[in-house]
Amino acid sequence: MNFLASSASDLVKNLESGDVSSGDLTRVFLDRIDSCNGQVRAFSSVTAEAALAQAEELDERRSGGQAVGKLAGIPLAVKDVLCTKGQLTTCGSRMLSSYAPPYDATVIARLRAAGAVLLGKTNMDEFAMGSSTETSFHGPTANPWDRGRIPGGSSGGAAAAVAASMAPLSVGSDTGGSIRQPAAFCGVVGLKPTYGRVSRYGLVAFASSLDQVGPLAATAEDAALLLEVIAGHDELDSTSAELPVPSYSELLAEPLQGLRIGIVESHFADGLDGEIEASVRRAITLYEQLGATVHPVELPHSRYAIATYYIIASCEASGNLARYDGAHYGHRTDEGRMLEELAEERRMLVEAGDSAGAEQIDGPLVRMYRRTRAEGFGDEVKRRIMLGTYALSAGYYDAYYLKALKVRRRIRDDFDAAFQQVDVIAGPVTPTPAFALGERMDDPLAMYLGDLYTVSANLAGLPALSLPCGFSDSGLPIGLQLQAPPFEEARLLRAAHQFQQETDWHARRPSLVEES
Amino acid sequence: MSDQPYEIVIGLEVHVQLRTRTKLFCRCSTEFGQPANTQTCPVCTGQPGSLPVMNRDAFQLSMKTALALNCQIPEFTRWDRKQYYYPDLPKGYQISQYDLPMSCDGWLEICETQGESSEKRIGIIRAHLEEDAGKSMHDEASGRADSRIDLNRTGTPLLEIVSEPDLRSAAEARAYLDELKLLLQYLDVSDCNMQEGSLRVDANVNLHLDEPSGLIATPIVEIKNLNSFRAVERALEYESRRQYEVWLEQGVKKGDIPKQTRGWDDQLEVTRAQRHKEESSDYRYFPDPDLVPVVVTPDEVERVRRSVGELPAALRSRLQAEYGVSEYDANVIVNQGRDFVAYFVEVADASGDAKRTSNWIQQEILRRMNELQISIRQFPVDAVDLASLIQAIATGQLDSSRGRDVFGRMFEQGEAVTDAMQSLGIVNVDEGSLRSLCEDLLAENPRVVAEVKEGKEKAVGALIGQAKRLNPNVNPSEVRAVCLELISQQ
Cα angle at A378 between A78 and A433, to 5 degrees? Predict the structure, then answer.
């Protein structure tokens, strides 16, 4: 049996019926990682021993007739932004390159309790800041469909791991599109849940009011299975919603008859790649054939979404990343060299007769902070910290941060009004297919503008899903985005699942040469 | 009021550590004095990914305090991040409240008794809740600078109470602090221990001068590092003199230079400018997205209001009105705390003699409490027993000196009044024995009898001492009465 091509839902059945043991299944995926990760670099760390120990313990429990969880024995990859107790959690940053947290994120604890087998941590843009997984301290991840291209980001490793069959499921995080955009670029399903649907406890914060953890999988059915396990209120996260979690898997088959789909015509205007437009429009036509109706809707404030997003996200990030100062954990500059440097600077100033300058020189603590942060963070992280620090400074707060909050409210109001008329909003995930490695690294603005279609869902706190809806002539996957009102993940998963019953885009796999 | 050529204007910021079992945003214990860094978790050490969750108890204690300070409690309040770098602040920001504090616009009545006593209302601008930082321990003695951080205190709930600049002397500032501390103790919201840092004070001070050109204000100075109420008083006295001297020399006015921060040096008794870097900060406050805003319902406010109980000012008035205690005595009793007042009230009610109770309590009880450094709760003589003793004295069963002997026995041996009297061999002398004892004394002291007959009633006093030597249980006032009666019959 080719377990690598199986869905997680099928693997659950294989494990239940005894077709395969958790241990053997885990070995199958660890072998795949061994042979493919060198080309794709989806994983930044692989915890083979712990995974096998976990799998074997599950096998014993199962053979002993003990109850096992919903994902018992299913191998899974986790974005390196979720804390795993005693295991590296680097966030793709030199700052945390040797950091092993003293605790498990709530999502990790729920996965472990459900019996999921953690294969390792996947690569990402540093602190989830980026759209290409190129800003990682570990180096870039390659797109499995074309290794000269980026996999998207920031959850690029998580999407590539599923696309390259190195894990049937993965967990990512989405602050402005970081699950949906790599899912689109890698040809898998990715869901950003409603803000508050999944606990953020143990998710290393980028922008607290936008971050949300979500599933990546080959199919909507698998994403539903994974979401059921990780969703739900957590008393350790006061922003998590106190709402019951529906059985997403059981709601997938409900007919789409009468589903009202909203289309924002401005999403199809200038700048959208022609092949993407054609694929997305074909997908919408298919929905009509399945009984849905299509209606134009407007989101007039969406054109401010990118600007609003980059202010709010950067402001929050500047605060959230202040803790990385070398005092308590993570990277700290070489203190001996720092003290020598200070002494040398002072000596030179004194020799030059600049005693005032010598007075003004940093104290050791301030210099430790400066050097630690200069060494520990990459350029993109520094850029956003500076943006956020500037926007929150006295005299600028009202013009930037406060204004951005007001626009954010308007963006949410637009969606509320649109969802009075339609059940979901459909459109593209990205303006172009996956771009080449290095193509946008020197042009941050072009990189930011690529988030055009995805950031609004984060600003409005809505659930949004990306699913494969075609391929470009050059063989790159194309994604369709579906957005729904708050806590209507079931509606998104149902629409995606039934689309996948009629199409096979999700069944295609890139051809990777297995290296032995 | 003073002979100074200026008026001192003072506002105080008091940080009160609230008495909660656990920290403000995590479940770590707040117990003082534990080994360094043993009361920590991912949240209070600022680990990546950790999130704060508000401790509702801390919020309730804050509301209780704010209500006792006559503050308004807005329906909606939220948390802000105050951002700055320091090693004892692991997140790089402190969770505090900026533009929407949990309470505002209150007042506290103080009574400054150094001059003639006068009551004065001191405005409270706001009281807001925030988390404490950790402790830095700098070992400068070791030659090489070596700093260590203890994060046990990090995240302990602090209530910051900010007064209006309504205080006009160091003595008034002291009276405000004493009254505030007493109030906090009555509310049982803090242990108010300054040594352990449960109560911390910063003072803002400047001078108003009535110059020919009009009213002039000197630049405002914030004084930090005030480790005791006495230090607050002395620092304010020093700082006002200093500001006046600087004014005379330099003539710098408020607004000419930014607000300055000075630290109090307790040894040298001077304030010293802190480095410029430490004072000019842009904290870049913004709402903490990790915490949901707090919504307070009117019902909740009422429930907390009912838990406030009778406060010092109200108790002082009640003791004077209902128990006929003097203002001074009421102050002494109330300042000892709620348990002491309860003890007084119980003894006064049971004995029916508030005046005598007040005297006894202030002399014997307070003296013994101070000697043994114990609280009224630990006091071995319970209120009912003390009331019986006071009754025995009031009815003449015991004279006050024998009363003190009995009390000593009650205190030391834990005996009840009657047992203590028995142990001391105190028995009531019956009417017959007393008369015959007095008759014998009169017969032996004809000179005394003669003097009394001449109108010198005082002379009978000589007989009382003799009577007590013959029988220690006789009551002096009874001896006196019987002797005078017998003489008048002769």
Answer: 60
SS (H, E, C) B360-417: HHHHHHHHHHHHHCCCHHHCCCCHHHHHHHHHHHHCCCCCHHHHHHHHHHHHHHCCCH
Of A239, A319, A393, the CB nearest to B282: A393
Facing B289 at nearest CB: one of A202, A209, A365: A209
Strands A464-471 and B146-150: unpaired
Give the residue numbers in B contacting A (CB under 8 Å), as ranges. Answer: 42, 45-54, 81, 83, 85, 87, 90-93, 145, 149, 282, 284-286, 288-292
Confidence (pLDDT) at B422: 82
What is the rounded distance in angstroms from the CA atom of residue A345 to the CA atom of residue A358? 8
Q: Enter the tokens of residue B260.
A: 């300055």
DSSP output for B405-457: HHHHHHHHH---HHHHHHHTT--PPPHHHHHHHHHHHHHH-HHHHHHHHTT-G
Task: For residue A85, indicate whether it is catalytic.
Answer: no
pLDDT digits (tens, 9 = 90+) for B96-152: 999 999 999 999 999 876 555 578 999 999 999 999 999 988 765 555 567 899 999
Closest alpha carbon to B359 in B370, B350, B371, B347? B347
Query: What φ, ψ does residue A428 adopt, rounded to 5°?
Result: -75, 160
Is A105 in contact with B49 (Cβ distance < 8 A)? yes
Instruction: Tell me how many helices (H) and strands (E) chain A has.
Output: 17, 11
Specify the residue for token string 């509310």. B187
Determine phi and psi for B79, rounding to 5 degrees: -110, 140
Instruction: Tell me if A189 sits within 8 A of A222, measured CB to CB.
Output: yes
pTM: 0.91
A112: enclosing H helix or E strand: helix A106-113
The token pair that represents A67 in the structure block: 């109850």
Round to whole Å and give the CA distance between B221 and A403: 35
| CA gap A111, A167 in Å, rounded | 15
Is the per-residue pLDDT at B156 higher than 90?
yes
Structural domains present in chain B: 12-198+274-301 (no CATH), 310-423 (no CATH), 431-489 (1.10.10)
Say whether B48 and A101 touch across the interface (CB within 8 A): yes
Task: Name which of B49, B90, B282 is nearest A205 (Cβ-Cβ).
Answer: B49
E strands, B89-198, are 93-96, 103-112, 118-131, 135-139, 146-150, 157-163
Which residues does B407 contact at the CB level (< 8 Å), separation at least 6?
A: B364, B381, B386, B389, B420
Integer angstrom CA distances of residue B327 from A125, B172, B310, B344, B403: 72, 19, 17, 15, 27
pLDDT digits (tens, 9 = 90+) for A248-270: 999 999 999 999 999 999 999 87
Question: Which one from A6, A131, A165, A178 is the annotated catalytic residue?
Answer: A178
Place of tokens 């007393």: B434
Alpha-carbon distance A399 to nearest alpha carbon in chain B (angstroms)? 14
Residue B290's closest chain A neighbor by CA? A208
Please tell me the distance from the alpha carbon of residue A315 to that of residue A408, in angstroms, as a whole number.
14
Query: What span, in angstroms and rounded, lies between the C-alpha atoms of A193 and A203?
Result: 14
One of A21, A44, A79, A136 is an active-site residue; which one?
A79
Collapsed DSSP state (helix, strand, coil) of residue B295 = strand
Across the interface, which of A203, A238, A369 has its CB nearest the CB of B49?
A203
Specify the CATH number of the domain A3-251: 3.90.1300.10
* pLDDT tens by residue, B375-428: 999 999 999 999 999 998 888 788 888 888 899 889 988 888 888 888 887 777
Q: In chain B, which residues have their Cβ closer than 8 Å to the Cβ of A323?
A: 46, 48, 90-92
Does residue B254 surpass a pLDDT of 60?
yes
CB B184 within 8 A of CB B219: no
In chain A, domain spans: 3-251, 325-376
